[in-house]
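Sample entry (659 residues):
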Amino acid sequence: MYTLGLNCCFSPPTEDIVPGLPQWFFHDASAVLVHDGHVVAAVEQERLNRIKHTNRFAGDAARACLAQAGIKLGDVDSVAFFFDEAWTDKELFHQYTEHPGVGIRWARDLITARFAEALEEDLPEERLTFVAHHDSHAYSAYPQSGYDDALVVVMDGRGEEESSSVYTANGDKVELLATNTPENSIGHWYTAGTELIGYGLFDEYKVMGLAPYGDPDTYAAALAPLYDLLPDGDFRLDFTKLRTTMFRTGFTPRRKGEPFEQQHKDFAAALQQVTERVATHLISHWQRVTGHRRLAIAGGVGQNCTLNGKLLAGGTFDDVFVHPAAHDAGAALGAALKVQADTSGRLTRRRVRDVYWGKPLPAPDRTAETLARWRGFVEVERLTRTEQRVAELLADGKVVAWVQGRSEFGPRALGNRSILADPRPEENRQRVNLLVKKRETYRPFAPSVQAENVREYFDIPEGATVSDFMVFTVPVREHHRAGLGAVTHVDGTARVHAVDRAVNERFWLLLEEFEARTGVPVLLNTSFNNHAEPIVDSVEDAVRTFLTTGLDHLVVDDFLVSKPTTGRPLTDLVPVLEPYARIERRVDAAKNESAWVTGNYTKAKRIPVGARTALLLERFDGVRTLGELGLDAADPADADVLDEVEALWGDRFLDLRPR
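Predicted structure, serialized as tokens:
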């Protein structure tokens, strides 16, 4: 039995379903194909349309999943959508009311229409099932934990009418015990605090990384009236008064791009502390009631690795499982698993060890052909001892992008689309943050370590399963902190990623070779992307990110890619505007014209460009090179235009391709 899980909004590829569609409206689009309880493929739509956290219809992701299985939509027995149908139509009703110029179509009709457009196949209406949102999350976590019984906790911004849900799971049975309302949302609480520190939706993890730099006691008394820990695991958490409360303390909101003051760090610490207290209160009560010694977590709050680490170390549970796709993309998985369980009467339970469920790399000969097209912009060497050579480069201080096999599913999985560096020099953290990721220097990186050595370097409770994913923040053992300066956070912790040889042998062997040269079976690891784009998926994505960052080398399969000392100019490349990019112009009262490049999705970045660049962009035809469009790399008069074109390439509003 095939079931296709689906999480997305209903927008076609090139525009939102309504103007200014909110970012939160069914974000992190994805598709997951499940066959008899086992995952065949899972792809996040952002990896393919290259829009971070996209809520466009997941047609590309669905097509990729079906291709991996070698089937068509007609071979799928059911499609499972990750929200309740009536609630979804109610949310559409609100959007249609605010945008009277948009035609009215309901969720069921929209899903079938989008499938017909994306896959050129009709989806029979009776094959479409809607699953309650928190049920979708719960069924992503419990079956894949491999537990025979567990307390299952879902915490996020909101589902239909709940923001946290607690389940008891025994064998094939998952039973809802309690919920809390959106007015007391832990997820909304954290997002509201995130905004006060100059970040926005989807930036909550940045606040988690900032919190260890602050003192929670600075604002503990001010935040105390905003929450109550009530009997029976219940709680009150009023995120609506957070701004007013902080205003009264004299706190100054940080603006994006401004430096962090101590008040911002202290507030981040206090925000995290309240989150941990409320979540622990809820979870501890229901552990006492049910007696479960194992915990499975899903929902967006499940990506708070610091909270997860404290739950793991707290002694209340013998083991804790957090899905690496605990966010809404993972709800597509849970929706599919629930529909299959409801249909068959059986719930397949098996510990997930890896989520390399995405698109695979092409055959080596095809990869070689792709890389050869970039001749003059890159140098390519085919390796015979790949792990040994890469370990030598890393030990020599190089920063290397590592692309192997099938891409990962979810933000907490690592190993096949990664940026790697030596974990020992503390300056490597700043180097990777600034030159590659182009982000704040305080942000921590994960250490990847061989699973058999993880407890030597990191404090993980005895008896707890060593996680294959970057889902727990745990203490670095004190005698190793100085030697792991690039991956040890300011509070002596790290978000550890354990690598089992049976799960990812090639990456394990790379760690083995690095240890042979340095004595340390650990590498700095972060997902392979930059500030402007999702994690890379294809070989083409990898080359583009390599050329627009400060990476030293790229390894794709067994190909080592380097930057030549003297390469070909950008004017030899063919420019193409991305499908989502658009040019905006404005003429002021004095008839001065300004121009920007932006995206056709909510809150897209706006990049100012000069008049010559704007005119050039309108002449892109996907055939002529920049040189053939009139730019000369040797002409100083064209330098500013070329700089703006290169910046737009780095910000992913245009692509530059070899002919």
